[in-house]
Amino acid sequence: MSISLDRFGREAFFRFVKRAADRLSRWAKEGNPISIVSHVDADGISAVGIMASCLYRLGVPFRVRIVPWLDEDIISELSSDFEGPFVFTDIGSSYMELLAKELGTRGVLVLDHHPPSGPPPPGWVEVNPHNHGLDGSKDISGAGVAYLVARELDSSFRDLAPLAVVGALGDLQDTFNKRSLAGLNELAVRDAVEAGLLKVSKDLIFYGRETRPIHKAMAYTTSPLVPGITYREDNCLMVLSKAGIRVKEDDRWRAVRDLTDEEKERLLEALRDFLASRGHPPSIVDRLVGTVYTLTREEPWTPLRDAREFSSLLNACARMERPDLGVAICMGDRSKALEEAMELLNEYRSTLAGHVARALSEPGFLEEREHIIVLHGRDAISDRVIAPVASILSSSMVGKRKPLVAYAFSENGEMAKVSARRPPDLVGLDVGAVLREAAEACSGLGGGHDVAAGARVPISELEKFLSLVDELVGRAMRA
């Protein structure tokens, strides 16, 4: 049997992008309300912001629903609550069979970057890089897919490119040289730069580099987690003092953006010395220098100025159960929604700091098994934030060639929410495939990317699930 190659590569991918834009254009002319369904994280909210902005400008009525996952109950509810066509952004491909069962006769677009579980039903349009031999875990995010369809729909929508950058950074796709975006994400970066909406530079990557005093920016940097520095403002101030760096100027706190190049070099050297004196690899510091994406039209001293901070703000809205605030901000609200979101961000950061500190210091949280490291969040860590906690902790496990598998109990005490993260130096392991297989064997659902994945399993099956994940990871690494 001959294999058709016309589905593979960028050219084929963009044929499906055009097909999706044509379908959206037709729906827009028909004027029926369109339902947008997306994933509850920074990438999913960015994707909604892009699609909702397009429909709003076209004068098309729309509704938004943001969900943590899809199952039979949620899809059945969507089907009964909403008439008209659906656009799924940053979610859908991994649930194709379930979607087809409930929505097979409806108009559906799936704009996703997660590995597909099967082909879409006839008449549906799915835009997914994995269908064309492209890598959805690092080359393009869900927001990136939505953006490419948007700019095909109308060239004036290229002003939405910064949201695609924010979504990609929110999904930690800055895995290329000096923590830069590449692959298909470069198209959004280029469009945003050409429109004067984005500046790309090499600099220190501290969280809050535009908005926070230097020591606080250092303390709240979690990617990577810097031992003894992250969440330790006292140590940050000590390192700054040893580096001879003033934290104030004329009674005003200095931010990272105020540092001279020479001061930045002194700070990095002081951090290396600090880590070495405590037995930690000084090489961690190298990951604090990289590509900075500055949104030039956003006000300085706001968390929207730096694209990574923007993505953190959206993630806070998602994890603190107010994704509506994130969508409003993506669509241009810079007043009430932004004020509320900034309050949530402070609460979110404090919540994460507490969970990470407990996990690293108290016995019983982290368990090293033969092939995996397990974070037993149980009911001590909220299932809403288990994914970002897993991301932060995995960044601290330098040299540990084992994936981190974290779980927390749902509020009803029936299910365990699982998040897995693969160390960057552990090639040849697809944690998404592992979690999918293990979850299905334990009456649950799972899947995701090769580097980051999630699952939901009954608590009664949790130990069986963890043991199976350990076994499958070992089997994969021996292959």
Strand content: 15-25%
The overall pLDDT average reads 93
User: How many β strands by DSSP?
Assistant: 15
List low-confidence stretches: 1-5
> Strand order of the main beta sheet, please?
10-11-12-13-15-14
Which fold name fills CATH's third level, the topology of the largest domain?
inorganic pyrophosphatase (n-terminal core)
Q: Give the structural class.
A: alpha/beta
Q: What's the CATH class label of the largest domain?
A: Alpha Beta
In one word, what is the shape? globular
**Biggest sheet layout:** 6 strands, mixed
Q: Report, as a whole number of angstroms, the end-to-end distance.
A: 29 Å
Name the helicity range: 40-55%
Task: Please tell me the CATH architecture of the largest domain by its name.
Answer: Alpha-Beta Complex
What would you say this structure looks like, in words?
The chain folds into three domains: 10-197, Alpha-Beta Complex (inorganic pyrophosphatase (n-terminal core)), CATH 3.90.1640; 202-358, no CATH class; 362-478, Roll (Diaminopimelate Epimerase, Chain A, domain 1), CATH 3.10.310. The chain contains 16 helices and 15 strands. The protein has helices spanning 10-30, 42-58, 72-81, 96-103, 142-153, 161-170, 185-194, 214-219, 233-242, 261-277, 307-319, 323-330, 336-361, 386-396, 431-440, 462-478, and strands spanning 34-39, 62-67, 86-89, 108-111, 125-127, 198-204, 248-249, 252-253, 289-295, 366-368, 373-378, 404-409, 415-421, 445-448, 452-458. The strands form four sheets. It has a six-stranded mixed beta sheet, sandwiched between helices. Strand 10 and strand 11 (373-378) form a beta hairpin. The longest helix is centred in the C-terminal third of the chain and has 26 residues, at 336-361. The two termini are 29 Å apart. Mean pLDDT is 93; it is low at 1-5.
